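Issue: copy button drops trailing tokens. Both records pasted manually instead:
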Amino acid sequence: MHRGIVVPLDRRNVDTDAIFPKQYGRSTAKSGYGPVLFDNWRYLDPGDLDSDHARRRPDPGFVLNDPALRGATVLLAEENFGCGSSREHAVWALRDYGFRAVVAPSFGDIFRQNCALNGVAPIVLAPREVRALFDLAQLGPLEVLIDVHEGRLAAGPHAFAFQLTPRQRLLLTQDVDWIGATLAQRDRIAAFEAERLARQPWLARMFPGR
């Protein structure tokens, strides 16, 4: 269960280069990217790896710089969010800023996979439901309640259902990585292997000791 304030980013086709600009991709670190999230939109002056971001000039017109939304943990976006390259840095930047969920009508496929792997819930709602949330956010800071187990997002008088795969839920609710999520299915894997061996016993001769 997660309760958080929404940042409404009303833009379509936001690609990973907009989320995490390429000039920061030379870093080999896996964290510390929160200050450069949406860098080209967030600041009035350009930045690079050597910049002191605390001294840069924020763009007061960009939603992430709204003082009323400071500490927000849910990003509301439009269709095809996270399209473009497969860089995992984009999700790292969202996570490091503090976002724990992104809500949109659709996502780039690889970006959506990277979200669950890094503790950010990729929540798909119907376009009309996303628009209803944008309308609510225009009235003032919007708080939502997200239940990953039940697949439910509540906001004011509205409640919306969403779907996550069992693996996504496991990654988001337990401290496991992709390998751990696979190992959690070891009983199903063993059952499949036993059933396959019963149907194709000649495999035992090809793979002795399995």
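Record 2 (pasted manually too):
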Amino acid sequence: MTILDGNVVTVAMPAIQSDLGFSGSGLAWVVNAYLIPFGGLLLLSGRLGDLVGRRRMFTTGLAVFTAASVLCGVATGPGTLVLARALQGVGGAMTSAVVLGMLVALFPEPREQARAIAVFSAVGAAGGALGTFLGGALTQAAGWHWIFLVNLPIGVAAWVAAVRILAPEKGVGLGRGADWTGAALVTAALMLTVYTIVGTGDRSPGATLTLAGLAVALYAAFLVRQTRAARPLLRLRLFRSRPLSGANAVQILMIAGMYGFQYIGALYLQRVLGYGALLTGTAFLPAPVAIGALMLGLSARTIARFGPYRVLLLGLALVTTGMALLSRAPVHGTYAADVLPAMLLLAAGFAAAMPAVTGLAMAGVREEDAGLASGLFNTTQVVGGSLGLAVLTTLAASRTERLTGTGAPFVTATADGYRLAFAVATGIAAAALLLTATALRPGAASSTPSTDARPVHDAHSPS
């Protein structure tokens, strides 16, 4: 639900603009208002989950997200919708940040943990992939309001289930790591990073560089603070874990390419092949079906047999191949020949890679840091997706504008812009493959977090 709401509005944007009177530039804030607090608060929410209890953070986030969804659904003006979307982002961050930490604590045995992560990854991938379809179907059948109102029964059911099923747990206490100065610095830095990325196409290069420089300065101030704080928000020793650092870096690249496929692929179907909103959403359905089937049916067993490193290599190789096929993007292409084969390769690759990289990122994380590591992993997802979307859409738009300025037909120029974007996405996926082969190779020199706490594998399940 929380992942789906990041992109469910994409197809409904024209209807929202017409109904509520958004300006062309203001319409982008229907998406940005959700992404900025979502990406900015994940790290803080993850750490707070360790301090006050992850179940408490999870259920509170669900309540906030569900209430905000209702406010979105009944919005009668642009300001109300943007504010409600921002509140959705807050609730989404609170909920998403602690999920992985809860999973690795509930399932400490490696084989069970791999299965749980595969289910988690499948649900997340399905939410992202189904967003386009559900957005088009609900908008066309019942109106754009229902892309938000449908969250009410889902959110209530999830909240009730969480309260009844998840055992209460005590966090380590706010006194054990409540570095509010550090929290303010890193939250401001992350929000500014997402804001800078998602608005790249709407401002001058100089303004973008200025904002990026300010974000870097905030990160530097945060790191200095963490080295001096008596109870730091983020224990920097966490990054001495090669699997955690390497897996998060690989994820940024992988998600950057996959987000580009989802967004630019939908535009290619509509603007080049002439598909409508509902048909475009339907065309994407094979991806979540394949991802769900492979993750639930094969992923955990494959990882248990061959190890996450080999499975991640295979998955990224398939993603790279799928992106390379899409870089053809012909003007007179067909779905069966030019889209579906690449989509299935991407789905198979993502189904293999995502659970593997998730398991690597959480391997060996201490129980007291599980929420923080979960928040960090989700943060790199948001940053990677936002960065990939900004870079690839900017490249595509620039190439299209340059070609139309020389007299090229609009559809031809648009297809050429998308070809460039997919070619760059191929390079990004190949970079993720190379990084995996070098940074995550078993036996490479590494250092791990200090042994002042038990690994998650040895923690007792709260249940």
